[in-house]
Design brief:
It comes from Corynebacterium pseudogenitalium ATCC 33035. Belongs to the Fmt family. Its EC number is 2.1.2.9. The chain has about 325 residues and is of the alpha+beta class. The protein folds into 2 domains: about 1-205, Formyl transferase, N-terminal domain (Rossmann fold, 3-Layer(aba) Sandwich), CATH 3.40.50.170; about 210-305, Roll (Methionyl-tRNA Fmet Formyltransferase, Chain A, domain 2), CATH 3.10.25.10. Helix content is about 25%, strand content about 20%. It has helices at about 10-20, 45-55, 70-80, 100, 125-130, 165-190, 220-230, 300-305, and strands at about 1-5, 25-30, 35, 40-45, 60, 85-90, 110, 135-140, 150-160, 240, 245-250, 250-255, 270, 275, 285, 290, 295-300. Strand 6, helix 4 and strand 7 form a beta-alpha-beta unit. Helix 1 (about 10-20) runs parallel beside helix 6 (about 165-190) and helix 5 (about 125-130) runs antiparallel to helix 7 (about 220-230). It is elongated, with a radius of gyration of 23 Å. The N and C termini lie far apart (about 55 Å). The mean pLDDT is about 95.
Length: about 325
């Protein structure tokens, strides 16, 4: 099948690699424009663009898909020339208008990292971990004008492990989801797939702000554990230590902790080789911490460098 791939970040690269290795013909890629990164704020291509260029594939980088914009008009003209039969999408990051959705024969087919209608929106992996779900997965569906509301073409399930960060889970889903996307393209090409309406109550996973990633130490230990893992690595769980904002890596839940006194939420207890923090229930053991201007480091090593008058409570 003749396809154009739309995607931007690293997780989308896996799906594009699998499509390139399949029997389908990837004639072009649509991705976000180059973005400024690093201290020098130099322009860098998206991971999807970089891979497409390695394979000599045409890259389209409109800033907007609106039909009244110059970029939008140019994209429409080029898509009509290329005549894709389907446009598979993985985390592209731009709103697709109705006239574009109707352009390919099989539509725009999105790979979404949840079992729809669960966790519609921008952060399904983070939401599943934070909610304590045992199982999640990936879905392919035909994009409609609504937010992740389109009929489903295929699904794959994935167990959520008790130590999974968002990065761990998303990495596994990128691979299983990439296989699902290829299988979906195969089924559409063979005329063997029929999209099915989503069944069940929808839940939503909007984009996460940095402010929302703050750790609330008054929460139960299990909720803090999920919250930190859900926000690792991005945007990064954090807390205040005096006047400084510090990032917190995943913590360990320990049923019996040798702490000589009860700890208030956020209160630190520094042992010889461990750092514990009070929560709304039992204390948790810190794994890693990143102070301003520093690299992420083991919490015990960080604590050994503190002066005797250092702050002993997170806020």
């Amino acid at each position: 099948m003749r396809i154009i791939f739309a995607g931007t970040p690293e997780p989308a690269v896996v799906a594009l690699e699998k499509l390139l290795a399949s029997s389908h013909e990837v004639v072009a890629v649509i991705t976000r424009p180059d973005a400024k990164k690093g201290r020098g704020r130099t322009l860098h291509p998206s991971p999807v663009k970089a891979l497409a260029q390695e394979h000599g594939i045409e890259v389209l980088t409109p800033t907007t898909l609106r039909p009244d914009s110059e970029d939008g008009q140019a994209l429409r003209s080029r898509l009509k020339e290329l005549q894709p039969e389907a446009i598979p999408v993985v985390a592209y990051g731009n709103l697709v208008t109705k006239d574009l959705l109707e352009l390919p024969q099989h539509g725009w087919i999105n790979l979404h990292f949840s079992l729809l209608p669960a966790w519609r929106g921008a952060a399904p992996v983070q939401a599943a971990i934070a909610a304590g779900d045992d199982v999640t997965g990936a879905s392919t569906f035909r994009i409609e004008e609504g937010l992740d509301t389109g009929p489903v073409l295929g699904t794959v399930t994935e167990e959520i492990k008790g130590t999974d960060t968002a990065d761990d889970l998303l990495t596994r889903l990128a691979y299983s989801g990439g296989d699902l996307l290829v299988a979906t393209m195969d089924g559409l090409a063979a005329g063997q797939l029929e999209a099915q309406p989503q069944q069940g109550e929808a839940t939503y996973a909007p984009k996460i702000s940095t402010a929302q990633a703050r750790v609330e130490w008054s929460q139960p230990a299990f909720a803090i554990d999920r919250h930190i893992r859900a926000h690792t690595p991005g945007p990064g769980a954090w807390t205040m230590w005096g006047e400084a904002r510090v990032k917190i890596g995943p913590v360990s839940l320990i049923e019996e902790v040798a702490v000589p006194q009860e700890l208030e939420p956020g209160q630190l207890h520094i042992a010889k080789n461990a750092v514990f923090v009070g929560t709304g229930t039992q204390p948790v053991q810190l794994g890693k911490i990143q102070a301003p201007g520093k690299k992420m480091m083991n919490a015990a090593d960080w604590a050994r460098g503190l002066g005797k008058d250092a702050e002993v409570k997170f806020q």
